[in-house]
Specification:
This protein has 328 residues and is mainly α. It contains 13 helices and 4 strands. The strands form 2 sheets. It has a two-stranded antiparallel ribbon. The protein has a two-stranded antiparallel ribbon with strand order 3-4. It is globular. It binds heme C (2 copies). The site of one heme C has 22 residues, from helix 9 and helix 10.
Length: 328
């Protein structure tokens, strides 16, 4: 009798522990996924669709339409086989500014027209929309700046203006730019990130991160993540927090901020793996003229603090952020 009861208790304990091993770890993961959508108390701003661009017969209609085309299919005009000039690496603005800058937390352009010109610490100057567009030309597209008076620049400006024309001046709409994820306690881990990459990203972006062209050979079907045709090391997305935030809400391609599939940890780790791979380099000596304004995750010294470059590259970022705050 006593023996039977003891065996039953032991079996119960075993089952309970097995349950914990299988489900509780997964639970943490799903809570994290859930939080990502609950924390945002209101839903996001979505810009007008390109189908709503004014007709060619209306004021600026064709200029806005051309601006949309340049954002969505940049390579066809400015890429290595472009029809206007060959001044970029072949990526499209839309590869990062998803759905031509209208996807929430997909590097959305919603607040651009309302908040520029504005002072930016990276250049230490007041930047116009033209300057900001050219920043991405020279860094994200590893290319040459457009002439401010060119039809192309005027068209991109007209499109961005049209997109943000219903946003109150000075206001940042929900869903613009990238969502910055909470910092990890530990440094992000590129070795773990490689495993995430192989399982979730490689099938489109390729084993060597080079992406793949579409059948015309003029534009990417899957854009490169590293290597000579990718963004250079002066690009905003070379900061780990920006890449991790972009990936969490947008990749694997097709998901959105309501339906992330990676945990925050996985997003940080895969971002660390990607940004540890080789890519073009750009002169950065004039960036961040005031050292103390360098972001915590900016991997190039000199710094106003004593943390190592490695910690500025992979974290943990919390101690750097705390030290920065205490100095102010
Ligand atoms: C490799 C990814 C990538 C590509 C390609 C790219 N950008 Fe960007 N862009 C970024 C990142 C990252 C930021 C910074 C966003 C932030 O800090 O919130 C940014 C910011 C901007 C901003 C300012 C947004 C804001 O809300 O302040 C504009 C305008 C812009 N990009 C235009 C362009 C244009 C035009 C192109 C194509 C010529 C382009 N970008 C291509 C990654 C990219
Ligand atoms: C189903 C194919 C697919 C998968 C899987 C996928 N991506 Fe992408 N990715 C794309 C496409 C397509 C784009 C460009 C989107 C566009 O132009 O609309 C993109 C764009 C990107 C960009 C911005 C552009 C660039 O080249 O720098 C990053 C970063 C990125 N993906 C990272 C990832 C990561 C990390 C994973 C795995 C977690 C992943 N992707 C999984 C198809 C995919």
């Amino acid at each position: 009798m006593f023996k039977k009861a003891l065996i039953s208790i032991l079996i119960l304990l075993l089952v309970f522990n097995l349950y914990r091993m299988v489900f509780v770890k997964n639970d943490q993961h799903s809570n994290e996924l859930l939080n990502a959508s609950i924390n945002k108390d209101t839903s996001a701003w979505v810009g007008p669709s390109h189908y709503q661009i004014p007709l060619a017969t209306q004021k600026n209609g064709s200029l806005i339409q051309y601006g949309y085309e340049l954002i969505a299919h940049t390579a066809l005009y400015l890429g290595p086989k472009g029809t206007v000039q060959h001044s970029t690496n072949g990526m499209n603005c839309q590869n990062c500014h998803l759905e031509a800058g209208t996807k929430p937390w997909g590097l959305n352009y919603g607040s651009v027209f309302a908040t520029y010109p504005k002072f930016r610490e990276r250049s230490g100057s007041i930047e116009s929309i033209y300057k900001r567009v050219n920043d991405c030309m020279e860094r994200s597209l590893n290319g040459k700046a457009l002439d401010t008076n060119s039809k192309e620049m005027k068209a991109i400006y007209a499109y961005i203006q049209w997109l943000g024309s219903d946003v109150t001046k000075g206001k940042k709409v929900k869903g613009s730019g990238i969502e910055i994820l909470p910092y990890l306690k530990e440094a992000a881990n590129p070795t773990q990130g490689k495993i995430v990459y192989l399982q979730n990203c490689q099938k489109c972006h390729g084993a060597n991160g080079a992406g793949a062209m579409d059948t015309t050979g003029k534009m990417y079907l899957y854009p490169p993540l590293w290597g000579m045709h990718s963004y250079n090391d002066a690009a905003g997305i070379f900061q780990l927090s920006k890449l991790a935030g972009f990936i969490k809400n947008n990749m694997p391609n097709g998901i959105n901020y309501h339906t992330p599939t990676l945990s925050n940890q996985e997003a940080w780790d895969v971002a660390a793996y990607i940004n540890a791979q080789p890519r073009p380099s750009k002169d950065k000596s004039k960036d961040w003229p005031v050292l103390a304004t360098k972001p915590v995750d900016y991997p190039f010294g000199p710094y106003a603090d004593t943390f190592s470059s490695a910690q500025h590259q992979f974290g943990p970022f919390e101690p750097i952020a705390m030290a920065k705050k205490n100095k102010q």
